[in-house]
């Protein structure tokens, strides 16, 4: 038979209300008592009734996690890390995909508001104004978008762009291109500013190509512009664009890295398996997922703060970059 809260209370030698508080408000229970109750609950296989607990505490113990494109290999490590970490905090995660559509994103947030205690917004496409309006109804933590007054996790893509441009100019490339991301992307804007500054500091030219879809098709489509630009070194919005670009260049008889060097962003599995293996900017996606959960639960618990956490990126050099031809 399934263990009940009364079974746990009897075996622990405490009142039923103490067992209830152990799961709904553990900070109100003495540590020694709490640990004893949790151990007994584990031995008996007791699981608290979430629906009943939600009625008592007003908490669902659910989190919404909204991503721009779940098929993009950038997002799964972040999702898995967030889910695993949330489970250790006795929370479940609902994952939703906007397919890069801001209207869908707004509809999903409005749908989830009554079913979750808070929402993680990863690379949102909505305007700041709309996000601030929706934030009045549910706590947010935003990943890879800076919004004043909101808890934020940033992966320092500007640092990554600088490292990539410095790597290319260090190999002798003097005419560079940035295959930018979609319009409205905060990340793409950060890359554009940092890449332009780094190129200027190195005495190199930088041409901006885009906006582009953040997919392999986006990379294929921009290949002709890269060739026409005369660039010998290219930084792309993400690994998917880089992989598509490499394919598009090969179709035009342009070899990577012999003729053109290509740098991606994200350090996804597909980039590591591609030929040539992709030089890329590694993004700390798993760490971002775990920290985002902690910030959101802090926000749910005490109203939170406008904490800004910036995570370092790093350049991983592989086979898709080489010295510029003299």
Automatic annotation (TrEMBL):
Output the Gene3D superfamilies linked to this UniProt entry: 3.40.50.2300, lambda repressor-like DNA-binding domains
Pfam hit, one: LacI
InterPro entries per UniProt: HTH_LacI, LacI/GalR-like_sensor, Lambda_DNA-bd_dom_sf, Peripla_BP_I
Domain HTH lacI-type stretches:
3-57
Any one GO MF term held by the record is: transcription cis-regulatory region binding
SUPFAM superfamilies, sorted:
lambda repressor-like DNA-binding domains (SSF47413), Periplasmic binding protein-like I (SSF53822)
Its domain of life reads Bacteria
Cite the entry's keywords alphabetically: DNA-binding, Repressor, Transcription, Transcription regulation
Q: What's the name of the protein?
A: LacI family transcriptional regulator
The organism's taxonomic lineage, starting at the top:
Bacteria, Bacillati, Actinomycetota, Actinomycetes, Streptosporangiales
């Amino acid at each position: 038979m399934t263990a009940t809260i009364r079974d746990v209370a009897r075996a622990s030698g405490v009142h039923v209300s103490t067992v209830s508080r152990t799961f709904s408000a553990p900070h109100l229970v003495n540590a020694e008592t709490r640990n004893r109750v949790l151990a007994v609950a584990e031995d008996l296989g007791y699981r608290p009734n979430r629906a009943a607990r939600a009625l008592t505490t007003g908490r669902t113990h659910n989190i919404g996690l909204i991503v721009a494109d779940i098929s993009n290999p950038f997002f799964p490590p972040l999702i898995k890390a967030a889910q695993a970490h949330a489970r250790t905090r006795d929370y479940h995660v609902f994952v939703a995909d906007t397919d890069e559509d801001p209207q869908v994103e707004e509809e999903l947030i409005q749908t989830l508001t009554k079913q979750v205690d808070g929402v993680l917004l990863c690379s949102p496409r909505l305007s700041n104004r709309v996000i601030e309006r929706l934030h009045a109804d549910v706590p947010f933590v935003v990943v890879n978008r800076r919004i004043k007054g909101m808890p934020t996790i940033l992966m320092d893509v500007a640092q990554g762009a600088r490292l990539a441009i410095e790597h290319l100019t260090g190999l002798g490339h003097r005419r560079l291109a940035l295959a930018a991301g979609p319009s409205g992307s905060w990340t793409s804007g950060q890359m554009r500013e940092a890449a332009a500054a780094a190129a200027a500091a190195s005495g190199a030219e930088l041409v901006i190509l885009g906006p582009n879809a953040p997919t392999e098709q986006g990379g294929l489509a921009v290949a002709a512009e890269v060739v026409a630009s005369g660039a010998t070194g290219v930084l792309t919005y993400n690994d998917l664009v880089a992989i598509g670009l490499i394919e598009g260049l090969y179709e035009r008889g342009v070899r990577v890295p012999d003729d053109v060097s290509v740098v991606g962003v994200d350090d996804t599995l597909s980039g590591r398996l591609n030929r040539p293996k992709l030089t890329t900017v590694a993004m700390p996606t798993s760490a971002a997922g775990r920290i985002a959960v902690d910030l959101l639960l802090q926000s749910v618990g005490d109203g939170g703060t406008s904490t800004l956490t910036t995570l370092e990126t790093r350049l991983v050099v592989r086979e898709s970059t080489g010295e510029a031809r003299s």
